[in-house]
C-alpha cells in the first residue's frame, strides 16, 4: 500500500518569489506607491518560468502594504469559441468589468450588458473607478488590469492591443471630462500583459508610447532546486529530500525546464524514493540503494512528460478517488453534460437500441426475433471503438434524456454552438473538415427548419456527423454528476 505524504506547500510560497527577486524588485519600483511610472508593462518569457506567479505575488504584497488594487483576467476565457480560439473584445471587456465589480464593489447595482465597444467599456470603467475612489476617501487609487495569456490578443481585433496599451491615458482623458472635483486626480489605471511571446511579435514600432518590457528567462538549475526544495513534505528529512531533488533534476532538467511539470514530477516520484526507506527496505543513508529503486520510475517519467500520469497504487479506493478527481475537473454547463452523454450513447449504441432504451412502449417482441438476437454474434463496442452518428440522432437522444427535467432545454443556436465547443475541447470529433469548419455556424441548423430533400442529400453541412471521444470512466463521471445511470443505457452492459 502506498504511503501518503503531507506536503508543506499546496502552492508555491507567495513572497518573496524564489528565483525572481530581481524582476520582483523592478516591478515594484515601476508600480510605486499607487503612482505607476508607466501605463503599460509587458512581462514575457517561456512557459513555466513563473510569470503569472511573479505578478500575482508582487501585487498581493503591494495590496498588503499600500492597498494596491488589481484584477487578473485570462484572455483564454474571452475566446468566442473553443474551436476558433479568437479573443472577443466584447467578452474581454465584460470579464474585466465583472472582475472589478465582484472584487471591489460587490454590492453596487450596475449592469454592463450594453458594453458593445471600447467607448462603452471606457465609460463603464470610469464609473467603477469613481465609486472605488469614493470608497477610498481621498487616498490615491491605482487599479492594475492584468491580462494573462495575452498572446491570444494578436489574433483579435487589430485595435484591441493599442487600446489596452493606451488605456491609462484614455482613462485620464475620460475622467477629466466626466468627473468633477479633485477626486479624479487620485485615480490611475495601468495594464499588464503576461505573454510567452516576445513584444516584437506584437508591435511593429508604431505605438505612440512603447510599454516597459520585463523579460523572464528560464530557471537555472540552482533556482529550480530551491523551488522544488520549498515543497518538501513536513515528515521528510531535508537532506534526503535534497538528494532526491538533485537526482530528479539530473534526469529531467536537461529535457524540461517548466516549473509546473517539474513540481508535478517531484510529487509523483517522491514516494518511489521515500517509501523503501519507511518500509525498511534500504537504510536512510543508503543513497545508492534509494537511487537504484527509484531509477525505473524516474526514467519512466521522461516517456510520459507533460502527460500527467496517475501514480500506481494497490489501494483501489485511492485509484477511484483520483479518477473521480480528474473527471470532476471536466466542468461543463448542465445541459451540455446531457449533450455529451447523448453523444456517448450514440457512439456506443446501435440505432435499434435507441428505441429499446428511450421509448417507453416499444411493443411486444416475438419469440422468433428473440431467438435471432440471441444467436447473433455480438462484439463489444467498447472494444471496436466509437461509431459515427448524425446530428439529428444526437439531438433526438438529447431530447429523450431531458424530457423529464423540470426545465426543458430550448433547442436554440446557443445549444447547437455547444457542439462546436465540445469539438474544440476534444470531446467530440467531426468526421470531415467541412463539418469542423461549419460546425459553429451551420452545423445542424437544418434540423430545426424544413429543407428540400435534394439539399439534404448533397450538402454535408445539412447533416453533420460526429464521433464521441470520451472514455468510459469519464463518461460515467459526467453522468454521475447529473444523477444519470449511464451503464443502464448501454448495450454492452444490458445485453440488448
Automatic annotation (TrEMBL):
Question: One short Pfam family name for this protein?
Answer: ORC5_C
Among its keywords, does the record have Nucleotide-binding? Answer: yes
Please report the stretch or stretches of sequence annotated as the Origin recognition complex subunit 5 C-terminal domain.
332-490
Q: Where in the cell is it found?
A: Nucleus
Q: Which keywords does UniProt give here?
A: ATP-binding, DNA replication, Nucleotide-binding, Nucleus
Query: Which family does the record assign?
Result: Belongs to the ORC5 family.
Q: This chain belongs to which protein, by name?
A: Origin recognition complex subunit 5
Q: Which organism is it from?
A: Calicophoron daubneyi (Rumen fluke)
Q: What is the lineage of its organism?
A: Eukaryota, Metazoa, Spiralia, Lophotrochozoa, Platyhelminthes
Amino acid at each position: 500500500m502506498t504511503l501518503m505524504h503531507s506536503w508543506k506547500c499546496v502552492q508555491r510560497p507567495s513572497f518573496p518569489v524564489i528565483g525572481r527577486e530581481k524582476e520582483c524588485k523592478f516591478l515594484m519600483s515601476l508600480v510605486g506607491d499607487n503612482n505607476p511610472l508607466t501605463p503599460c508593462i509587458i512581462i514575457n518569457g517561456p512557459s513555466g518560468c513563473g510569470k503569472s506567479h511573479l505578478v500575482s505575488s508582487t501585487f498581493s504584497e503591494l495590496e498588503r502594504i499600500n492597498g494596491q488594487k488589481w484584477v487578473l483576467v485570462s484572455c483564454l476565457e474571452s475566446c468566442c469559441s473553443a474551436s476558433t480560439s479568437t479573443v472577443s473584445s466584447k467578452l474581454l471587456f465584460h470579464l474585466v468589468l465583472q472582475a472589478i465589480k465582484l472584487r471591489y464593489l460587490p454590492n453596487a447595482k450596475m449592469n454592463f450588458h450594453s458594453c458593445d465597444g471600447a467607448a462603452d467599456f471606457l465609460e463603464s470603467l470610469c464609473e467603477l473607478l469613481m465609486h472605488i475612489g469614493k470608497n477610498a476617501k481621498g487616498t490615491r487609487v491605482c487599479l492594475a488590469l492584468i491580462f494573462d495569456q495575452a498572446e491570444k490578443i494578436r489574433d483579435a481585433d487589430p485595435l484591441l492591443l493599442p487600446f489596452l496599451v493606451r488605456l491609462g491615458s484614455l482613462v485620464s482623458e475620460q475622467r477629466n471630462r466626466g468627473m468633477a472635483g479633485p477626486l479624479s486626480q487620485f485615480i490611475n489605471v495601468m495594464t499588464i500583459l503576461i505573454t510567452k511571446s516576445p513584444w516584437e511579435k506584437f508591435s511593429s514600432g508604431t505605438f505612440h508610447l512603447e510599454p516597459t518590457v520585463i523579460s523572464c528567462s528560464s530557471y537555472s538549475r540552482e533556482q529550480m532546486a530551491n523551488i522544488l526544495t520549498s515543497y518538501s513534505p513536513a515528515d521528510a528529512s531535508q537532506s534526503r529530500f535534497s538528494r532526491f531533488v538533485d537526482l530528479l533534476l539530473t534526469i529531467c532538467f536537461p529535457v524540461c525546464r517548466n516549473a509546473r511539470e517539474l513540481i508535478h514530477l517531484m510529487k509523483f516520484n517522491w514516494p518511489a524514493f521515500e517509501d523503501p526507506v519507511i518500509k525498511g527496505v534500504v537504510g536512510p543513508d543508503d543513497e545508492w540503494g534509494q537511487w537504484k529503486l527509484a531509477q525505473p520510475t524516474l526514467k519512466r517519467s521522461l516517456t510520459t512528460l507533460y502527460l500527467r500520469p496517475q501514480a500506481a497504487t494497490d489501494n483501489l479506493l485511492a485509484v477511484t478517488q483520483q479518477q473521480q478527481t480528474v473527471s470532476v475537473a471536466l466542468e461543463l454547463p448542465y445541459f451540455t453534460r446531457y449533450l455529451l452523454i447523448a453523444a456517448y450513447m450514440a457512439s456506443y449504441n446501435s440505432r435499434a437500441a435507441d428505441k429499446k432504451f428511450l421509448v417507453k412502449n416499444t411493443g411486444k417482441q416475438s419469440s422468433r426475433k428473440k431467438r435471432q438476437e440471441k444467436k447473433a454474434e455480438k462484439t463489444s463496442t467498447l472494444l471496436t471503438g466509437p461509431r459515427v452518428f448524425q446530428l439529428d440522432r444526437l439531438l433526438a437522444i438529447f431530447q429523450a434524456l431531458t424530457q423529464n427535467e423540470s426545465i426543458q432545454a430550448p433547442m436554440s443556436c446557443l445549444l447547437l454552438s455547444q457542439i462546436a465547443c465540445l469539438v474544440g475541447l476534444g470531446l467530440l470529433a467531426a468526421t470531415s473538415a467541412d463539418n469542423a469548419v461549419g460546425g459553429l455556424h451551420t452545423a445542424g441548423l437544418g434540423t430545426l427548419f424544413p429543407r428540400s430533400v435534394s439539399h439534404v442529400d448533397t450538402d454535408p453541412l445539412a447533416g453533420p456527423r460526429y464521433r464521441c471521444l470520451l472514455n468510459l470512466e469519464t463518461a460515467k463521471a459526467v453522468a454521475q454528476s447529473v444523477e444519470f445511470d449511464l451503464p443502464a443505457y448501454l448495450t454492452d452492459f444490458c445485453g440488448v
